[in-house]
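The step that takes the researchers longest sounds almost clerical: writing a folded protein down as plain text. Below is the pair of lines this work produces for a single protein:

——
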Amino acid sequence: MTRPSADFSLILAASIHDMKNSLGVLLSSLEDLRDEQQASGSSSANLNILQYQAERIHNDLVRLLGSYRLQQNMLSAHTEEHFVRDLLDDTIARYVSIIDGQNISCQNIAQYISGYFDHQLIASVLDNSVSNAVRYAKHEICLNAVYCEDYLVISVHDDGPGFTESMLRQEMDHSIDFGGGNTHLGLYFANAIAALHNAGGRKGFIKLLNGGQFGGGVFEIWLP
């Protein structure tokens, strides 16, 4: 009897989905543990590190699953009108424990504006950007949103050392690099998500630059 052949990419995607869900349970348990520590007046630097690294792995799995869906043409942007400040507040809230644990200030300075975008997809892009900002920031992070040239521009600023020249070049070609220490999968995924948003013949895109509010790195996603 011939065994039915299995599509390895489908098996891998299903496994990633299961791992992502399990890690979500772990993150929830870590948050409960943090609440218990705060209630008892204690804190742990190791817990901050554990929660931050678990969050990074969770974001990596989200991007991997999203990249698979992109390749299979199973991912599309379902755009609806959203208040941008609410999106940014929700993003900060997901990282507030980690941010507070590292004595970093994170502010939402966005204008009171709305925009049309896929809330879940853009939230996943911002999660990755804020995670990177937390990694490199010294003391301050801020999230901003403005309209520029008929695009909604959402940005994440930090007071870290800024992006290297190689990172700025990587942003230009949006490729994945398996030869270096960083594959830049986050940038590839962010640009693909931005490009799913289109209006009037224009597509979304991302930008990396140095300067911004604090003179450090700035990640921008431009949505038409």
